Amino acid sequence: MFQLTPEQLQFQSTLRTFVAREITPFVNEWDEAETFPRELYRKVAAIGLLGLGYPEHLGGTEVDLTWRLLASAELARAGSGGLLASLFSHNIGLPPIVASGGEAMQRRVVPRVLAGEAIAALAVTEPGAGSDVAALATRARRDGNDYVIDGEKVFITSGMRADFLTVAVRTGGAGAGGLSLLLVEGDRPGLARTPLKKMGWWMSDTAHLRFDGCRVPVQNLIGEEDRGFAAIMENFNGERLLLAAGSWAFAQVCFDEALQWARDRRTFGAPLIARVAVRPGVASRGRPHRRRLGGRGGNAEESRHAGTAVVRRPGGADPGRHGLHARHTRGAHLPRSEGDDDRRRGRRSHEGTGGASAGAMSDKKIGRRGP
């Protein structure tokens, strides 16, 4: 049976307290504002979240992937996939730089991002190509000591405020063999950014990028020219694993809160959990999902009796958390108008991002992620 180490348990406790204090009370407000404070990057950096799994000499903490998976599970308790998408976009933007970038590039970019002083993003998806990476059309031509980039990227998480963009470009011929990765600073002339209105993940910064003669020095090449396809695919492996962990964690949150609601909500003198139409469904969904990462809360006895009215989760409802209904009915407190219907109907689904669509679909309930 999987068990967390004492250090991981301490980290889990610290993170759970942080989420309850610094994130959960504000997720509705941030969703309505369609952004979250940039200062939050510094706060999560201060407790070591941004640096998990990165080299120590670049400001990171060299731990295995279990720590990131644990962080995903705890952060999901706030119920906002959009927050996770933007707050941790560096986990898809930085790995190619760490793996293949030059030492000068690494020292210029990575420590600032891990300290929460700068934001990194990955730009792969285009209007005409996403998971089919070999079909990317954005081109970078060599002109003396520069690359000149022309093309578009779309659905780019953290695209509006990223200080560093890891951009997939075509430097050679057609197909996978002609792709490269370039580091593009966010203030480069020739780069234009437009925010996207989305169905869900409102607080997530998602952008359409346009490159019109955008020049970057040849020193911004990440790895070898025309060898970027393999780096992109390798990067997707870690991204998809984290997406899977996040999707599982959000599903767990949905189940926990639906179970608590069924126990607390009373109709016709009895809790919903006592209704024959409700109890079997809750019980069947309660059995296979245990054991949770880090042994959070549940136990075998509770799992067997999840459908009964008398069994309670140890400690009762989680402190500091809003109810699922209150947290995920954005705009419900506002007067409805005819013009609001298209904005409110189904806004919790995702807008689709290249290489991340499967994991993002879990956000029909909560949130999403993508490059």
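Next protein, fold it too.
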Amino acid sequence: MNLSVISFSCGLGFFNFASSFRNTAVSWDVNCNYESFKNVTRMNQVKNSVRLIGHLGQDPEVKSFSNGKKLAKFSLAINESYKNNEGEKVTDTQWHNVVVWGKQAEIVEKILKKGSEVAIEGKLNNNSYTDKDGIKRYTTEIVMNEFAVVGAKK
């Protein structure tokens, strides 16, 4: 049986997991005091919070509405590389759908292009719809509220 260590540091407002999840026993190391619990309110700020750094898969698709609001959509590729058992480099790419509203959508339209490297922050939003064949489909997207261009302009 493997022993997993899960440590929480209430004073700093973070937690750390080091685990193998097969046949796992858990050892807790909790360092908290009364003053530390005041920091729990900071954790409310990370509820439904997503932060990613990646590259745009295509130019943002922007729609303008009659009320003057804009909506921008783009896909974000997150690449992770590792070496497999044979020592070969393997790259795994995860794709995320991102939506942006209002003034941020206008800024995204002006400066982001396919291949731009950006850091984004937002929240997860789950939706469902029924397709033309009557099958219920589910989507997950990130509603972006902040971003920063990370890489050089392309």
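About the second fold: The radius of gyration is 20 Å.
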